[in-house]
Amino acid sequence: MTTTTVDSPLRTNPRALASGSLTAVRRHPLVVVLVAMVLVFQLSTGSFVDTANLRGIATDAATIAIVAVPLALLVISGYLDLSVGSTLALGGLVGGWLAGQQGQSPVVAVLGALAAGAAVGAVNGVLCCYLGLSAFIVTLGMLTAVRGLAQQLFPLPLSDFGTGFAWLGGARIAGIAAPVVIAALVLAAGALFLALTPAGRHVFAIGVNREAAYLSGINIRRTPFALFVLTGAAAALAGAIRASVLDSAVAGTSGAGFELTVLTAVLLGGVALTGGTGSIFGVLLGVLFLGCLQNGLTLLSVPTFWQLMAQGVALVAGAALAYFGPKATR
Amino acid sequence: MTAKTSATATATATSPPTNLLIRGLTKSFGGVKALDDVDLTVPAGQVHALLGHNGAGKSTLIKCLGGAFPPDAGTIEVDGVEFARLSPRQSIAAGVAIIFQTLSVVDSLTVAENIFLGQEWTRYGTVDRRAQETLAAGLLERVAASCSPRDRVGELPMRQRQLVEIAKALSRSASVLVLDEPTAALSGTESDALAERVEDLRTQGLAIVYVTHLLSEVERLADAVTVLRDGRVDFHSPVSGHSRKQLVDTIVGQGRAATPRPNRLLQPKPAAEGRATALPDGTHPEPDPRSAPLLAVDGLTGPGFGPVGLDVAGGEIVGLYGLIGSGRTRILETLFGRRRRSGGTVRVGDRPVAPARPAEALAAGIALVPADRRGQGLFATLSAQDNVLLPAVRPLARGGLRSLRAERRTFDALASAVGLRPARPKLPAAAFSGGNQQKLVLGRWINEARGTDVLLLDEPTQGVDVGARQEIYQVVEGLAAERGTAVLFASSDPEEIVALAHRCLIVAHGRVVAELSGTELTEEALLSAVHDTHTPADSDPVGSGTAEGAP
User: Fold this and answer.
1) Residue B398: pLDDT above 60?
2) Which of B77, B288, B321, B331 has the fewest beta carbons closer than 10 A?
3) pLDDT at position B9 over 50
4) A274 touches chain B (CB under 8 A)
C-alpha cells in the first residue's frame, strides 16, 4: 500500500537526498532485490557488470521502458492495454515498409509508425473511455485483431530498410544508444507529467475514484483517452526501433508476448492493477529487473523456458510481497 | 416435507420466549464512539422501534448484531446464549436475521433457491429442487407472499423480494428479526401490507427490532421504543397506546432533557437577535429570501421528482428536509448536472444554467458535497492536499506546470479555514476521521481559486462526530455570511435542519410540500410535517431509484 504516491521531486540538500533514497528503498523493495541480483550475476558470471553487457541490457530494456511508461499511466488511471504486442508489430512493419519498400526518409517512416500506433490507441480509447466498454475485453480483442490486420497488410516478412532507418536503433548519441536515449526521455517526461502537471493529478484521481473525480469537474474521459493514444504510439515506436535494430519485421511473430512482458514490468514496479497508485521510478525498476534477469540468465546459459518461469515467478512473488509485505514492515 | 414446515411453525409458537438482550454495547471508530454503552431488550412477541438520526448509531448497532463489526465492549444475548462478539455465521446460527434496506437477495436465482441459499437441500449430492420448492411454498404462505417458489427474484416487485428475505429468515428459524427501514422503498399500500406481516410475525413469537423514521409506524407497530442519539440511548419507553402528538413531544422533549446538546450552535435559530450578535460587525442581517435570489429554480423536473420551485438568496442557508426516497438527493444532483432534467429553469444570479455535466455546473458556480462520502466524495488513498486541491490544481498552475508553492499555501489556508486535524498535507485521506474527511470534501469548494456561488450539501454531517459537526456548521455559516454563498442542503435529521437552516423546505414524493421558517422551524414541526406528508403514493420510488448509475 503506497501511501504517498508522489513526493516533491525537488530535493536539493544531500541529507534530504539520503533520506529520500531511504524512503525510496522502503517504498520500492525491488531496489534491494535488483542490487542483490546484480551482485549474484556478477559473482557467478564475472562479466555481468561489463560495459558491453550493460549496454546490451539497456538496449533490450529500452523498448520495454518506452511502452511501460504510458501503459503505467493508463493503469494508474484505472485502465489497461493488452494490445501493445500487436501494435508493436504493426508499427515495425509500417515503419520498415515506408523506409525500405517506399524509400521514404526515416523521419517519415517513424511518423508513419507513430500514426499507425496512435490510430490503434484511438480505437481502444474511444471504445473504453467514451463508450465505457471493458478495457480488458476491448484490448484483448484488439491484440488479436491488430495482429490479423498486420498479417493481412504484410503477409511476407520485411527487411532491408536502408541505412537511414538503421540509425534509429543503431546510432550512438554521446556514446549512448539511440533507443536508450529515447527511453530516458520517455521516462523523464512520464515522471514530470505525473508529478508536476495538473493532468497528472487527474490521472491519480480518476484511478482512485472515478465518480468523485467526475463530481469534482474533472474530464474523466479525455485524459485516459489521450493515454490510450500515447500507449499505442509508444508501442509502434518500440516496434520501429526493434525493426531498425533487427533490420527485419515479421507480421506473425514480432512482439508476440510483448504485452505481457511490459505489463509484468509495470506491475513489478508497484503500479496497482486496480488503479490509483504507482510511480515512474517504480516502473524503471520493474523494467531494469526484467532486463537484468533475462540477461543474467542468458549469460548463465539457462534455457529459455527456465527464464520464462523465473519471470512468472518473479511477478507472483512480487504480488505476494506487496500483499503481505506492508503489514510486516509497518 | 410440508409436515416438517408446520412442525417448525408449531415449534416456534410453543418454544419458550425468545429474547434479544444487548447490554453495554460500545463500539468506536478511530476514537469516535459510534455506540456508547447501549442497552436494548426485546422479549419474544414484541416489536421494538429503533429511532435516531443518521449517524446516531443505528446501523452500527445492527452491524454488531449481524456480526459485521466486533463490539469493543458489552454483550449480546440471543435466546439466552451470551456472546461478546459474533461472526456473521454465528449470528445467523444464533437466530438473528437482518433485513437490510438494500436487500441481499440474488436476482438471477428463483425464490426457492434464494430462500435456501447456503443451506440447500440435497439428494445424492444434487440440489433437491422439489423439496426446496415445497418447503419454500410453506414459508411464503407464512409471510403471505403472493409469489411462487419458481419465480425469478429479479422479476418480483420490491415488496415481494422483501418477503422472500423474511421467508429466508424464517427458514433458518430466526428468533430475532431486524428490519432496517423496511418501508423506505415501499409505497403506502405496500407499507400497510408489510405492517400486517410484521404483526403476524409478532404473534408467531419473534422478537422484532424495527428501525424507522416514521412515527406513524412506531404508533401502529411498536411495543417499545428506543431513540439513539450520538451513539447513546437517548430515550427508552414502552409506547403502545401513546398518541402521535404525545410521541413527538416525548421524543423531542425527552431528548432535550436527557442530553444537554453540546453540539447546538451558539446562535439559536430562528431567533434573529442571537444571530445578529454572533456576527462580527453586524453588517450581515438575516437575508431576505424575496430580495433577488442567487439561486432561482422554477419547475425543475426529472425522473422521480418535480416540478420543484425554490429560491435561495445570497447568504441564505435553506434546508431540504425529507426521508430517504423523498427526492431531496435527486433535486440536488439535478441542479449539479449529475442527473438529466426533463424540464424547468435554473438561474444563478442573472444567468440561466442548464448543466449537462458536473463540470458545467462547477463552471457556473454550483458545487455539490455528496452524501456518499467514500463513494462519491473522497479519494481515499490520495493525500489530504490532493483531495482538497484537486479542482484547483489547474487554476493554480503556471505555464502548464503545477505551482507546488501556491498549492501548499492554498492547502494551509483551507486546512485552517475548515479546522482540519491533523493539518498534514501528505497524510492519505483514509487516515482521517469521518468528520475531517468531510472537511476535506467541503474544503474542495471553498477555496479562492474556484468561485462557488451556490453550495449544495447532501447530508453534510452524515457519519460525522459531534465536535466536527459543529465545525462544519460554522464553516457553512461563515461561507454564507462572509462570502454571500447561497447554501442549499438536504438532511433527514431534524436537529441538523433546525441547527443550520434559516428556512426549510419539506420534500416528499419529489415535491416541495411545505415550507417552515422563523419560529415555526422546530424539530416538532418537522417530525409532524414528515408524518403528515408521508401519504401513500402509487409510484414505486425504488423503481426509479435504481437509475443511480455512474456517468
Assistant:
1) yes
2) B288
3) no
4) no
Which chain A residues are closer than 8 Å to B378 by Cβ?
Answer: 209, 212
* CA distance, residue A131 to nearest chain B CA (Å): 11
Nearest-Cα residue of chain B relative to residue A9: B404
ipTM for the whole predicted complex goes beyond 0.95: no
Instruction: Provide the pLDDT for residue B281.
Output: 40
Residue of B329, B390, B396, B405 to mutate when probing chain A, most A C-beta within 10 A: B390
Is the CB of residue A5 less than 8 Å away from at least one CB of chain B? yes
For strands B176-180 and B96-99, give the pairing: parallel
Strand partners, B178: B98, B209
Q: What is the CATH number of the domain that holds A322?
A: 1.10.3470
CATH code for B293-544? Answer: 3.40.50.300
How wide is the angle at C-alpha A195 spanned by C-alphas A189 and A201, nearest 5°? 115
> B2-258 is classed in which CATH architecture?
3-Layer(aba) Sandwich (3.40)
The C-alpha cell of B41 is what?
431488550
pLDDT value, residue A327? 41
pTM for the whole structure? 0.78
Q: How many CB atoms lie within 10 A of CB A324?
A: 9
Residues of chain A neighbouring B444 (CB-CB closer than 8 A): 216
Average pLDDT over chain A reads 89
In chain B, where the domains are located: 2-258, 293-544
Could you give the dihedral angle defined by the CA atoms of residues B59, B63, B69 and B74, in that order, rounded to the nearest 10 degrees? 90
Task: Report which of residues B283 and B529 the model is more confident about.
Answer: B529
- Residues in A touching B376 (Cβ below 8 Å): 209, 211-212, 215
Coil, helix or strand at residue B99: strand
B358–A215 C-beta distance less than 8 A: yes
H/E/C letters for each residue in B280-297? Answer: CCCCCCCCCCCCCEEEEE
DSSP B28-44: EETTEEEEEEEEEEEET
Establish if A264 belongs to a structural domain. yes
Q: Which residues, including other chains, have CB under 8 Å from residue A255's CB and lie 6 or more apart?
A: A84, A85, A86, A87, A88, A89, A92, A235, A238, A239, A242
Predicted confidence band of residue B249 (pLDDT cuts 50, 70, 90): low
Residue in A with minimal Cα distance to B384: A4
